[in-house]
């Protein structure tokens, strides 16, 4: 009977009017029309439950459907001609969203098999889902793209360039499935690669990442002679080199992976693309913002540029970029803004009469700036500084810098830790004296407030002045057991919540709070922990993740605890960035506080784990370094 | 209970089916009867069905001819477009000009059609082992019966579900004069308007109506015997 087989005209003509089908060649459109299953759902019945093995791309022919996005209270209402169900198909995993008929609906449903055929065979078809899946990202990056186009007519927007141009730059190191994992690890270390494609002849049969080595080898104490094929990720997902960076970003985000082999038209592997490659590519647009800050000729254009930062951050968050690179990005923009404003003010006031450095403290020094962070800075003067004749200039410079930073979104420091304050304009020896005072006669209150001074970095000027001060200070501090015990104790007093009960936050004293302060209750405790270890062991590292790793190396922190705390730190900052991105989307000012009711179940459960871990480590810190004083 | 209430029509249908099967000559009609009847007590969700619509050049099965059959397989979940078929019949005489306007089937299209015997064999193969779903099923059953008698000398007996009858049976109310028309009933269930009078579209439209009726009727997944035409 196949000769009589024919597409249903109503189905075909509907597909012809609806993207992504409309852009299919006529033959494929007919093929799609013939594959459709027509189904009817009565109002209030489930089309798809979360966790279902969804086998259809569903197109609404009549009626409407409500999507409840997995684990959230977010609902999306879809009407005639809208389609849904593709994230699970693309992911080849269970549905995460619930789809419920909001009205009686007739659905034209394309079976998974045909969906994948079209997805693989037709760029336009695939692109439709790329862009739809990333529509939120697109809104964010489109504005950047417009700016790029506006400024230099450059259409080669970073995320739309093919992978070929970024994946093939490095040489390809690979191994065979039989290679011993010990040898594979050595090979990776020697060649400085974090991922190794596993090849059987010309065929890619798996990949081995440093994460695999940690999780599947070290964590379980596997013998180094074990062949690679026992721990590799078999049959990895690959991307064609003609795919865009955006596709790689989306694939990585949806599969929660950080490395993807890139293959050429013949299916041969031609490179590896990593999440940091993708970020760097995103960065080249985000660098655009950096370029504007850097090149600002007046405060007005600088303020205009930094005003785009929240949107850029929201875009990165929604693209699934991790918290650490986002924080680095925000920090580098902050640093550029500090430097540029200082330059502009120097131009207004004339050249500085003495050598100096602009030192920043706290989150900017740690490369952990977030949105809405305020400024913490000071000047360190060189030996040629003469207060009587030079300070007038620097007082004015400090005042203008603080004001400029405030305009650019780096608000005045409530604690007045700014170069406009004479207390924070000191010569190198005066600064050293100030620190020595804290260290030699520790006062619990002063220590609570002085923590951020142990995070210091030169942002402009004579960096050696800052570096020398930092080294001397840490040396002096680490040798003073009384001081370190005070620091440990100060860190340990932070009240980390116990967990959640419904929409409330459970605190140590069992009082239930309505607001979770992500900064004070989760981020700062980890920062304090890492700083305490840095002080105790006089570590050079300044950023929290680096300090945790260095503390583990120095034997001050259990390596597993260091890894856990690092993961915690990433997670809580991720929650904060996502929260802030949401606020930005809603036109609110980004803040650190959120209603626990806003959190998804996933986030709550992980936060509860994070709280527990942080509290345990704070307790350990207290017993290790604050002995006898608590 | 069911047996007492519905045993009559089902028993009659089974007897007629068996009698026709005995008299059918070797060939497509006998093959059709060999596919056998479904279990009438089985829940409707377990039944293989085919939505069918015939386009004819008149309403009298004795004097008018089948022009086209549209058929699509379905079950209570879905109508499967992959099974959609359109079988065109080549009429003996030139087309009745009045009917052309209604069906938009032209002499050209008919030229590509098959002779009655071949076309009918195609329809029988598509319907074998299935419960047939039609809107006002009297037309489909009468025209197929007449065609089979003409070609094979034995009539056509098959289980039918009639969506028009179901509507009056399951959702009894006052109907406007044209209130039982397929397009009117579809509107009531939120089904989209389809351009009528293409055999395949009408078959699918009717199949969709059945899906909608089945989700609205109080008893979920009723046994076939409760759904079948009486």
**Please, how many domains of chain A?**
4
Strand content range of chain A: 15-25%
Q: Would you count the extended β strands of chain B for me?
A: 7
Shape of chain B: globular
Helix fraction of chain A, binned, reads: 40-55%
Shape of chain A: globular
What is the subunit organization of this protein? heterodimer
Individual helix count of chain A: 23
CATH H level, superfamily name of the largest domain in chain A = Beta Polymerase, domain 2
In round numbers, the mean pLDDT of chain A is 82
**Spatial order of the strands forming the largest sheet of chain B:** 5-4-2-1-6-7
Q: Looking across the biggest beta sheet of chain A, what order are the strands in?
A: 1-8-3-6
Strand content of chain B: 5-15%
Radius of gyration of chain B: 17 Å
CATH topology of the largest domain in chain A: Beta Polymerase, domain 2
Mean pLDDT of chain B: 86
Q: Most extensive chain contact?
A: A-B, 28 and 32 residues
CATH fold title of chain B? Nucleotidyltransferase, domain 5
State the CATH class of the largest domain in chain A: Alpha Beta
Main β-sheet of chain A, in a few words? 4 strands, antiparallel
Walk me through this protein's architecture:
Chain A is an alpha+beta fold and 630 residues long. Chain A contains 23 helices and 23 strands. In chain A, the strands form seven sheets. Chain A has a four-stranded antiparallel β-sheet with strand order 1-8-3-6. A four-stranded antiparallel β-sheet of chain A has the order 2-7-4-5, with no helix packed on it. In chain A, helix 13 (309-318) crosses helix 22 (559-585) and helix 14 (323-349) crosses helix 15. Chain A is globular and about 100 Å long. The N and C termini of chain A lie far apart (87 Å). With 230 residues, chain B is of the alpha/beta class. Chain B has one domain (2-127, 143-227): 2-Layer Sandwich (Nucleotidyltransferase, domain 5), CATH 3.30.420. Helix content of chain B is 46%, strand content 15%. The relative contact order of chain B is 0.19. The chains are: A alpha+beta (630), B alpha/beta (230). The A-B interface holds A 1, 4-11, 33-42, 45, 61-63, 103-106, 109 and B 72, 77-87, 122, 125-126, 189-192, 194-195, 198, 200-201, 204-205, 207-208, 211-212, 215-216.
């Amino acid at each position: 009977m196949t000769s009589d087989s024919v597409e249903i005209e109503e189905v075909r003509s509907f597909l012809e009017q609806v993207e992504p089908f409309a852009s299919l060649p006529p033959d494929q459109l007919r093929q799609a029309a013939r594959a459709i299953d027509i189904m009817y759902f009565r109002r209030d019945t489930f089309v798809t439950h979360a966790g279902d093995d969804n086998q259809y791309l569903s197109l609404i022919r009549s009626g409407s459907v409500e999507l409840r996005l997995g684990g959230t209270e977010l609902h999306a209402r879809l009407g005639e001609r809208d389609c849904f169900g593709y994230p699970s198909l693309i992911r080849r995993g269970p549905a995460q969203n619930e789809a419920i008929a909001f009205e009686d609906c007739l659905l034209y449903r394309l079976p998974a098999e045909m969906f994948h055929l079209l997805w693989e065979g037709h760029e336009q078809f695939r692109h439709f889902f790329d862009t739809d899946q990333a529509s939120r990202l697109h809104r964010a990056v489109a504005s950047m793209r417009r700016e790029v186009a506006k400024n230099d007519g450059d259409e080669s927007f970073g995320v739309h360039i093919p992978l070929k141009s970024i994946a093939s730059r490095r040489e390809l190191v690979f191994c065979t499935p039989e290679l011993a994992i010990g040898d594979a690890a050595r090979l990776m270390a020697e060649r400085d690669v974090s991922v190794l494609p596993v090849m059987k002849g010309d065929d890619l049969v798996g990949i081995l990442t440093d994460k695999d080595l940690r999780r599947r080898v070290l964590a379980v104490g596997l013998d180094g002679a074990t062949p690679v094929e026992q721990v590799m990720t078999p049959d990895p997902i690959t991307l064609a080199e003609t795919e865009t960076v955006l596709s790689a970003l989306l694939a990585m985000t949806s599969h929660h992976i950080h490395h993807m082999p890139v293959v050429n038209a013949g299916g041969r592997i031609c490179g590896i693309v990593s999440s940091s490659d993708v970020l760097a590519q995103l960065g080249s647009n985000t660098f655009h913002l950096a370029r504007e800050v850097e090149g600002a000729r007046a405060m007005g254009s600088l303020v205009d540029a930094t005003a785009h930062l929240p949107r850029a951050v929201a875009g990165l968050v929604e693209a699934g970029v991790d918290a650490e690179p986002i924080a680095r990005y925000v920090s580098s923009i902050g640093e550029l803004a500090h430097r540029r404003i200082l330059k502009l003010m120097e131009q207004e006031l004339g050249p500085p009469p003495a050598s100096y450095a602009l030192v920043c403290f706290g989150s900017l020094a740690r490369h952990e700036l977030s949105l809405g962070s305020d400024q913490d800075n000071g000047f360190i003067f060189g030996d040629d500084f003469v207060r009587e004749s030079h300070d007038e200039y620097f007082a004015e410079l400090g005042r203008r810098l603080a004001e400029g930073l405030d305009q650019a979104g780096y608000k005045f420091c409530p604690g007045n830790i700014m170069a406009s304050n004479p207390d924070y304009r000191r010569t190198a020896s005066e600064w050293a004296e100030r620190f020595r005072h804290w260290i030699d006669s520790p006062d619990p209150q002063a220590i609570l407030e002085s923590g951020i001074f142990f995070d210091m970095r030169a942002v402009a000027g004579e960096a050696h002045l800052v570096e020398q001060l930092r080294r001397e200070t840490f040396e002096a501090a680490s040798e003073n057991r009384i001081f370190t015990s005070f620091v440990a104790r100060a860190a340990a007093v932070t009240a980390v919540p116990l967990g959640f009960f419904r929409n409330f936050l459970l605190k140590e004293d069992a009082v239930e709070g309505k607001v979770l302060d992500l900064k004070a209750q989760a981020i700062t405790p980890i920062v304090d922990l890492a700083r305490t270890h840095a002080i105790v062991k006089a570590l050079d590292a300044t950023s929290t993740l680096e300090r945790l790793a260095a503390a583990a190396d120095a034997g001050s922190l259990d390596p597993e605890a260091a890894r856990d705390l690092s993961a915690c730190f990433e997670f809580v900052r991720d929650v904060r960035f996502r929260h802030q991105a949401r606020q930005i989307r809603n036109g609110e000012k980004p803040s650190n506080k959120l209603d626990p009711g806003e959190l998804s179940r996933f986030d709550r459960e992980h936060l509860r784990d994070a709280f527990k871990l942080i509290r345990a480590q704070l307790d350990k810190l207290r017993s290790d370094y604050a002995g006898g004083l608590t | 209970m069911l047996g007492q209430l519905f045993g009559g029509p089902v028993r009659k249908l089974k007897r007629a089916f068996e009698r026709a099967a005995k008299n059918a000559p070797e060939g497509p009609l006998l093959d059709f009867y060999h596919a056998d009847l479904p279990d009438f007590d089985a829940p409707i969700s377990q039944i293989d069905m085919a939505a069918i619509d015939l386009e004819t050049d008149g309403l009298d099965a004795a004097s008018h001819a089948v022009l086209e059959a549209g058929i699509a397989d379905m079950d209570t979940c879905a109508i499967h477009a992959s099974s959609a078929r359109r079988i065109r019949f080549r009429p003996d005489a030139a087309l009745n000009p009045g009917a052309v306007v209604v069906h938009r089937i032209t002499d050209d299209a008919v030229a590509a059609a098959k002779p009655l015997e071949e076309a009918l064999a195609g329809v029988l193969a598509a319907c074998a082992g299935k419960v047939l779903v039609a809107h006002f099923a009297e037309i489909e059953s009468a025209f197929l019966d007449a065609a089979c008698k003409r070609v094979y000398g034995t009539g056509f007996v098959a289980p039918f579900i009639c969506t028009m009858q179901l509507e009056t049976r399951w959702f009894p109310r006052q109907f406007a004069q044209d209130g039982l028309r397929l397009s009117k009933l579809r509107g009531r269930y939120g089904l989209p308007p389809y351009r009528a009078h293409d055999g395949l579209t009408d078959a699918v439209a009717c199949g969709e109506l059945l899906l909608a009726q089945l989700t609205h009727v109080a008893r979920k997944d009723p046994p076939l015997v409760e759904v079948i035409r009486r």
